[in-house]
């Protein structure tokens, strides 16, 4: 479980089992992949509408709803105008094909 | 623990992971734990990035084992017969334990 240790105090993106995307600074985690994020935002992509960004602040994500978490290149991240990016809503992980 | 040990032999190899939310990710396997949580480096999504912008700019990705549907491996990296034998032996050993208790 030390895999997440390298992400600590860094900005990460988290995808949850219901298909949502959160971006925030990883303050802590445990064996069950419970995550503590600060300065969290949720980004909602749409194929036509502008991307919506919701400020959430401190967020604790329960481990069983985490799909993946990644550290990203902040230079690339900041160079992207996220409101102009379009995308589909991710599926959840419970879809029976 | 067999598959944990098996995946440990694949560290630093390129693998493709298909998740239960239908996303497919290619990357270099960097670490694995007992839950089969993975860490991949240099990831790229197999899906169309213009439709799935969620993973843009990510360098290193932790994937929770419980959300993985398939792991696609290069057949050259796997001795399927050896793995089959080992998993039978482990299953046998486990059933023996249960009778013992």
TrEMBL record, chain A:
<comment type="similarity">
    <text>Belongs to the snRNP Sm proteins family.</text>
</comment>
<keyword id="KW-0508">mRNA splicing</keyword>
<dbReference type="GO" id="GO:0003729">
    <property type="term" value="F:mRNA binding"/>
</dbReference>
<dbReference type="InterPro" id="IPR010920">
    <property type="entry name" value="LSM_dom_sf"/>
</dbReference>
<dbReference type="InterPro" id="IPR044642">
    <property type="entry name" value="PTHR15588"/>
</dbReference>
<protein>
    <recommendedName>
        <fullName>LSM2-LSM8 complex subunit LSM8</fullName>
    </recommendedName>
</protein>
<comment type="subunit">
    <text>LSm subunits form a heteromer with a doughnut shape.</text>
</comment>
<keyword id="KW-0507">mRNA processing</keyword>
<dbReference type="InterPro" id="IPR001163">
    <property type="entry name" value="Sm_dom_euk/arc"/>
</dbReference>
<dbReference type="InterPro" id="IPR034103">
    <property type="entry name" value="Lsm8"/>
</dbReference>
<dbReference type="GO" id="GO:0005682">
    <property type="term" value="C:U5 snRNP"/>
</dbReference>
<keyword id="KW-0747">Spliceosome</keyword>
<dbReference type="GO" id="GO:0000398">
    <property type="term" value="P:mRNA splicing, via spliceosome"/>
</dbReference>
<dbReference type="GO" id="GO:0071011">
    <property type="term" value="C:precatalytic spliceosome"/>
</dbReference>
<dbReference type="Pfam" id="PF01423">
    <property type="entry name" value="LSM"/>
</dbReference>
<keyword id="KW-0687">Ribonucleoprotein</keyword>
<dbReference type="InterPro" id="IPR047575">
    <property type="entry name" value="Sm"/>
</dbReference>
<dbReference type="GO" id="GO:0030620">
    <property type="term" value="F:U2 snRNA binding"/>
</dbReference>
<feature type="domain" description="Sm">
    <location>
        <begin position="1"/>
        <end position="75"/>
    </location>
</feature>
<dbReference type="GO" id="GO:0046540">
    <property type="term" value="C:U4/U6 x U5 tri-snRNP complex"/>
</dbReference>
<dbReference type="GO" id="GO:0005688">
    <property type="term" value="C:U6 snRNP"/>
</dbReference>
<comment type="function">
    <text>Plays role in pre-mRNA splicing as component of the U4/U6-U5 tri-snRNP complex that is involved in spliceosome assembly, and as component of the precatalytic spliceosome (spliceosome B complex). The heptameric LSM2-8 complex binds specifically to the 3'-terminal U-tract of U6 snRNA.</text>
</comment>
UniProtKB/TrEMBL annotation, chain B:
<keyword id="KW-0539">Nucleus</keyword>
<keyword id="KW-0747">Spliceosome</keyword>
<dbReference type="InterPro" id="IPR047575">
    <property type="entry name" value="Sm"/>
</dbReference>
<dbReference type="InterPro" id="IPR010920">
    <property type="entry name" value="LSM_dom_sf"/>
</dbReference>
<dbReference type="GO" id="GO:0005682">
    <property type="term" value="C:U5 snRNP"/>
</dbReference>
<dbReference type="GO" id="GO:0046540">
    <property type="term" value="C:U4/U6 x U5 tri-snRNP complex"/>
</dbReference>
<feature type="domain" description="Sm">
    <location>
        <begin position="2"/>
        <end position="77"/>
    </location>
</feature>
<dbReference type="GO" id="GO:0006364">
    <property type="term" value="P:rRNA processing"/>
</dbReference>
<keyword id="KW-0508">mRNA splicing</keyword>
<dbReference type="GO" id="GO:0005732">
    <property type="term" value="C:sno(s)RNA-containing ribonucleoprotein complex"/>
</dbReference>
<dbReference type="GO" id="GO:0008033">
    <property type="term" value="P:tRNA processing"/>
</dbReference>
<dbReference type="InterPro" id="IPR001163">
    <property type="entry name" value="Sm_dom_euk/arc"/>
</dbReference>
<dbReference type="GO" id="GO:0071011">
    <property type="term" value="C:precatalytic spliceosome"/>
</dbReference>
<dbReference type="GO" id="GO:0005688">
    <property type="term" value="C:U6 snRNP"/>
</dbReference>
<keyword id="KW-0507">mRNA processing</keyword>
<dbReference type="GO" id="GO:0000398">
    <property type="term" value="P:mRNA splicing, via spliceosome"/>
</dbReference>
<keyword id="KW-0687">Ribonucleoprotein</keyword>
<keyword id="KW-0694">RNA-binding</keyword>
<dbReference type="InterPro" id="IPR016654">
    <property type="entry name" value="U6_snRNA_Lsm2"/>
</dbReference>
<dbReference type="GO" id="GO:0000290">
    <property type="term" value="P:deadenylation-dependent decapping of nuclear-transcribed mRNA"/>
</dbReference>
<dbReference type="GO" id="GO:0071013">
    <property type="term" value="C:catalytic step 2 spliceosome"/>
</dbReference>
<dbReference type="GO" id="GO:0030620">
    <property type="term" value="F:U2 snRNA binding"/>
</dbReference>
